[in-house]
C-alpha cells in the first residue's frame, strides 16, 4: 500500500526549554488542555507551557511553547500520570500512588489537601453518569489486590462511589458511562460497575507485551490484542470494525478520526479505521508517550514533546486522487462526513466523486466512471467539453474552476490513440443516451441532444434516426451543418421535419432519389416520401410533389391519395373531383383511385362508378385487340369489370350497353341486360351464345340477391324453360336441365316442374331433385305446423286470461269515476284494465292514440 501524508510531526517543546543542561531529567507524562500543555518529569516536577499555533501554507502548522510555571510536588518519585479537569480548573496528578488535585494555573495543591491514596493508575470518565457539571468521575486501579474504585472528584474534595473486585490484577483501565474496560493479567474484560456484571473479551499475555486500553468513542474501546492486532470492542463485547495490524511491540495508541496511530520503538504508524490499511509511517525513536487530547495527538520522548499535525482531509483526498488512488480517496471522503458540516460535506463529496469519475474515465474504466458521474451529479457538459466541437457554438458553458481534471481535450487524454478515442466516444454516446431523459439533463437538453446527434452522425450509428424521429432538443443550426458535413442528408431531412420545415425536408429527399446528392441510408426512400406525403397536413406541399411521385410510379404514387385518412379527404383541397382531375394524365393511378372510391370507400356516386366501368372496359378492349386468341381466360381487368357490373347499381347501364355492342363481350352484355330486368335476354346470351351453363346458374343466384323467394324462383324457372324448350335433340341442354334441377331442388316449385318435364325422363334421373323437393316440402309443412301450434297455444293463454277476467262481477255506479278523466260514467259501457281500473270507452281510445296520456294499466 502506498503511503499518504496524513500527519506531519512538529516539535512543540524542545529539550533546552524543558530541562536546560540537566541531563538526568526525563519526561514521564504529558497533558494538553486547549493551549495549556503540562509535563510531568522523573524528578517530581510539573511544568506548564502555553502553546501558540501558527498555520502554514502547506496545510500544516508550527508550534511555539512558552514556559509559564514549574513546581515541585514534594515527592521523590516520578510524576506518573496527568489528567486535566477543565470544568474544575484542576489537574489530577498521580505520583507515588497518590492522586493530588492541583490548580491548573498556579500548580498549587488545593488548600483542602484533597487527594486519593493507593492508586497505581487512573482514567477519567469522558461519558459521565453524574449530571453534576462541577465534578468528574475517576476510576482508579487500587494498590489493593484485584480492586477497582470509582470516585467523584470535586473542586476541593473527593468522594468514593464504588469499589469492585476483579478476577485478576488490573493493569490498565478506560471508562465510558457505567462500563469499565480493564486489562487484567491474562485477558481484557468489560465490567459494568453499576450492576457488577462482566463480559470477557479476549485473552492476552501481559508478561509478553504492554496492555493498551483506549476509549475511542461512545461505548467503544481500542485494545492491543494478540498477534500485533489493534482490536476494537464495544461495551456489548463485540467488534464492529475489522482490526488493524500493528507491530508486536506497540507502546501506545491514539485515535484521530479516521486514523488509528500507534507508537513502537522506532516508528509512528498510521492506519485507517475505514479500510484498516496502513497509510503512513513516521520514523520516531525513543518515543514512549502517545496520547490524543481533544483531537490533538502528542508524542514524546524522554527529552522532548512533539505534536502530530493532521493535514486537512480535503488535501489528503486530493493527494490520493492525484496519485490515482480513487478507492482510498472515496473511502476517506465518506469517513470525513462526521467531521464536516453537512452542506459543506455534500458539496465537497460531489466534487470528489466527479474528480474520481474523470480519473476512471481517463483509465477507460467506463462503468466505474459512469457510476461516479451519476453519484456526483456531474454537469454532463464537463464531459462533453472534452470532445472537440461537440458542444453547440451557442453554448455558454465554462468548465469548473478549479478544474475537475488535467486534460485539455480528448486528444490529450488519449494521446492521439484512435482506438481509445473511439472507445471514449462510444461511452459518451451510451452515457448521454441514458441521462438525456433524466433530471441530469434539466437546463441543458439542447447541449446534450446536439452532442449526441454529432456523435451518432460521425459514427454512422443507427440510433441517429431514432433520435430525430422522437422528441429531441437538437439545435437546428449546429446540427444541420454537422449532418451536411457527414453527408447524412436523409437525417437532415428528418431534422428539418422536426423543426416544421417540411418543404426543405422533402426537397432534400427528392434530390437523393433523383441522384443529385448521395445518401444510402434508405433504399426505399421513394416509398418513404409517398408515405410522408400521405400523412402531410400541408395541402399545398402535397400538390407540389404529387406529379413527381406519380411520374416515378403511378401505382405507388397514387397512395398519396388512396391511403390518406378519410377525414382529410373531406377538405376541399383533397376532394375526389380535384384528385381525379390531377390523375387524368396517369391512367393507372386513375383506375387505382377510382377503385379506392368505389370499392374501398363505397361512395354512392354514379359518375365514379360509371367512370371506373368505362376505364375497365377500355382496358379490356385494348387487351382483346392485342391478344392473339379470343378464347383465352378472362383477364384480371375483365374479372374486375364483371364484378363491378354485378355488384354496383349506380353506373349508367344504357351508356355501357351502347359501348359494349359489337365488342364481343357476351358475358358483360348479359350482366347489363340483367341490370335492366331483361332476364330472358341475359339468360339467352349465357345459354345459347356462350353455352356457359354454370354462368347461367350463377346469374340466377346473383341476379336475385336481395330479392324475395318468388323472384329467385322465377329466374330458375325461366332458365329451366329455356333448357327444355330447345327440344330433345339438344342433348347438352337436357343434361344442363337435369343438373340444374338436381343441384337447386329447393329453388323450384316441384308441382310446376313435374308438369314441364318430358314423360320419357326416369325417376332415377331426377332422384336428387325429387328427394330435395320432398325434404323441402316436408320441412315447410312441419315448420308451418309448429307455427300453428304456437299460435294456438298463445291464443289459448289469452282465452284463459279473458275468462278469468269475466269470472268476477264488476260493480258500476254513478259514484264510480273514470280513472283517466275523473268523470262519472253516464252509461253502463266501459273498459276494464287488468289492475281493476275502469275507464270510459272514448278515454281508452284516446289513450291508445295518445301514448303520453296517463295509463291505469299496461294491458286492456
Automatic annotation (TrEMBL):
Organism: Ictidomys tridecemlineatus (Thirteen-lined ground squirrel)
InterPro entries: Clathrin_H-chain/VPS_repeat, CNH_dom, Vam6/VPS39/TRAP1, VPS39/TGF_beta_rcpt-assoc_1, VPS39/TGFA1_Znf
Single GO MF descriptor: transforming growth factor beta receptor binding
Pfam families for the chain: CNH (PF00780), Vps39_1 (PF10366), zf-Vps39_C (PF10367)
Start-end of each CHCR repeat: 564-728
Protein name: Transforming growth factor beta receptor associated protein 1
Keywords tagged on the record: Cytoplasm, Protein transport, Transport
Gene: TGFBRAP1
A GO BP annotation: signal transduction
Coiled-coil annotated residue ranges, if any: none
Cellular component, GO annotation: CORVET complex; early endosome; membrane
Domain (CNH): residue spans on this chain: 24-297
Amino acid at each position: 500500500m502506498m503511503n499518504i501524508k496524513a500527519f506531519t510531526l512538529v516539535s512543540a517543546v524542545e529539550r533546552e526549554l524543558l530541562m536546560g543542561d540537566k541531563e538526568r531529567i526525563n519526561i514521564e507524562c504529558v497533558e494538553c488542555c486547549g493551549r495549556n500543555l503540562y509535563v510531568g518529569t522523573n524528578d517530581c516536577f510539573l511544568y506548564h507551557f502555553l502553546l501558540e499555533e501558527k498555520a502554514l501554507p502547506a496545510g500544516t502548522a508550527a508550534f511555539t511553547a512558552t514556559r509559564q510555571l514549574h513546581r515541585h510536588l514534594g515527592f521523590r518519585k516520578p510524576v506518573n500520570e496527568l489528567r486535566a479537569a477543565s470544568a474544575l480548573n484542576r489537574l489530577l496528578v498521580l505520583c507515588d500512588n497518590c492522586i493530588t488535585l492541583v490548580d491548573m494555573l498556579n500548580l498549587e495543591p488545593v488548600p483542602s489537601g484533597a487527594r486519593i491514596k493507593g492508586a497505581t493508575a487512573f482514567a477519567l470518565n469522558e461519558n459521565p453518569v453524574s449530571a453534576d457539571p462541577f465534578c468528574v468521575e475517576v476510576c482508579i486501579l487500587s494498590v489493593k489486590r484485584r480492586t477497582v474504585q470509582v470516585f467523584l472528584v470535586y473542586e476541593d474534595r473527593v468522594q468514593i462511589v464504588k469499589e469492585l473486585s476483579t478476577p485478576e490484577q488490573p493493569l490498565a483501565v478506560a471508562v465510558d458511562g457505567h462500563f469499565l474496560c480493564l486489562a487484567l493479567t491474562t485477558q481484557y474484560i468489560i465490567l459494568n460497575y453499576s450492576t457488577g456484571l462482566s463480559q470477557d473479551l479476549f485473552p492476552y499475555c501481559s508478561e509478553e507485551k504492554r496492555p493498551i486500553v483506549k476509549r475511542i468513542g461512545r461505548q467503544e474501546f481500542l485494545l492491543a490484542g494478540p498477534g500485533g492486532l489493534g482490536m476494537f470492542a464495544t461495551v456489548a463485547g463485540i467488534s464492529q470494525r475489522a482490526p488493524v495490524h500493528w507491530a508486536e511491540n506497540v507502546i501506545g495508541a491514539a485515535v484521530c478520526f479516521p486514523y488509528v496511530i500507534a507508537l513502537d520503538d522506532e516508528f509512528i504508524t498510521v492506519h485507517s479505521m475505514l479500510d484498516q490499511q496502513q497509510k503512513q509511517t513516521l520514523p520516531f525513536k525513543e518515543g514512549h508517550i502517545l496520547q490524543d487530547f481533544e483531537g490533538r495527538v502528542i508524542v514524546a520522548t524522554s527529552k522532548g514533546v512533539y505534536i502530530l499535525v493532521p493535514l486537512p482531509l480535503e488535501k489528503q483526498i486530493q493527494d490520493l486522487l492525484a496519485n490515482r488512488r480513487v478507492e482510498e480517496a472515496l473511502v476517506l471522503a465518506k469517513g470525513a462526513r462526521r467531521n464536516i458540516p453537512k452542506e459543506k460535506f455534500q458539496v465537497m463529496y460531489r466534487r470528489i466523486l466527479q474528480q474520481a469519475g474523470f480519473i476512471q474515465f481517463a483509465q477507460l474504466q467506463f462503468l466505474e466512471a459512469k457510476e461516479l458521474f451519476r453519484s456526483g451529479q456531474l454537469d454532463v457538459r464537463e464531459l462533453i467539453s472534452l470532445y472537440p466541437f461537440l458542444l453547440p457554438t451557442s453554448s455558454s458553458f465554462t468548465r469548473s474552476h478549479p478544474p475537475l481534471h488535467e486534460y485539455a481535450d480528448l486528444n490529450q487524454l488519449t494521446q492521439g490513440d484512435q482506438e481509445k478515442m473511439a472507445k471514449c466516444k462510444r461511452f459518451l454516446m451510451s452515457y448521454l443516451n441514458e441521462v438525456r431523459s433524466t433530471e441530469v439533463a434539466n437546463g441543458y437538453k439542447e447541449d446534450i441532444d446536439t452532442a449526441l446527434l454529432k456523435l451518432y452522425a460521425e459514427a454512422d450509428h443507427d440510433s441517429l434516426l431514432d433520435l430525430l424521429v422522437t422528441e429531441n432538443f437538437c439545435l437546428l443550426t449546429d446540427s444541420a451543418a454537422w449532418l451536411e458535413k457527414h453527408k447524412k442528408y436523409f437525417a437532415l431531412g428528418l431534422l428539418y421535419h422536426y423543426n416544421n420545415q417540411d418543404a426543405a425536408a422533402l426537397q432534400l429527399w427528392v434530390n437523393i432519389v433523383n441522384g443529385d446528392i448521395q445518401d444510402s441510408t434508405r433504399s426505399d426512400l421513394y416509398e418513404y416520401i409517398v408515405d410522408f406525403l400521405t400523412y402531410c397536413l400541408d395541402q399545398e406541399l402535397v400538390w407540389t410533389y404529387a406529379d413527381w411521385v406519380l411520374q416515378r410510379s403511378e401505382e405507388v404514387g397514387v397512395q398519396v391519395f388512396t391511403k390518406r385518412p378519410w377525414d382529410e379527404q373531406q377538405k376541399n383541397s383533397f376532394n375526389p373531383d380535384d384528385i381525379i382531375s390531377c390523375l387524368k394524365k396517369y391512367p393507372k393511378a386513375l383506375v387505382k383511385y377510382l377503385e379506392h372510391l368505389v370499392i374501398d370507400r363505397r361512395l354512392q356516386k354514379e359518375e365514379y362508378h360509371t367512370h371506373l366501368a368505362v376505364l375497365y372496359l377500355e382496358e379490356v378492349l385494348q387487351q382483346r385487340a392485342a391478344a392473339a386468341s379470343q378464347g383465352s381466360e378472362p383477364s384480371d381487368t375483365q374479372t374486375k369489370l364483371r364484378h363491378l357490373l354485378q355488384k354496383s347499381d349506380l353506373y349508367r347501364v344504357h351508356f355501357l350497353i351502347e359501348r359494349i355492342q359489337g365488342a364481343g363481350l357476351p358475358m358483360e352484355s348479359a350482366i347489363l341486360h340483367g341490370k335492366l330486368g331483361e332476364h330472358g335476354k341475359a339468360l339467352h346470351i349465357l345459354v345459347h351464345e356462350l353455352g356457359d351453363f354454370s354462368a347461367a346458374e350463377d346469374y340466377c343466384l346473383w341476379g336475385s340477391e336481395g330479392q324475395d323467394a318468388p323472384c329467385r324462383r322465377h329466374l330458375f324457372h325461366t332458365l329451366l324453360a329455356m333448357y327444355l324448350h330447345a327440344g330433345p335433340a339438344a342433348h347438352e341442354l337436357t343434361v344442363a336441365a337435369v343438373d340444374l334441377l338436381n343441384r337447386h331442388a329447393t329453388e323450384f316449385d316441384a308441382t310446376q316442374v313435374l308438369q314441364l318435364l318430358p314423360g320419357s325422363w326416369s325417376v332415377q334421373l331426377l332422384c336428387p331433385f325429387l328427394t330435395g323437393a320432398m325434404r323441402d316440402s316436408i320441412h315447410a309443412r312441419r315448420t308451418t305446423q309448429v307455427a300453428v301450434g304456437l299460435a294456438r297455444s298463445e291464443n289459448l293463454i289469452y282465452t284463459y286470461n279473458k275468462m278469468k277476467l269475466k269470472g268476477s262481477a264488476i260493480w258500476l255506479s254513478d259514484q264510480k269515476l273514470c280513472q283517466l278523466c275523473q268523470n262519472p260514467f253516464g252509461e253502463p259501457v266501459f273498459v276494464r284494465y287488468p289492475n281493476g281500473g275502469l275507464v270510459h270507452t272514448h278515454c281508452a281510445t284516446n289513450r291508445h292514440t295518445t301514448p303520453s296520456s296517463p295509463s291505469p294499466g299496461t294491458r286492456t
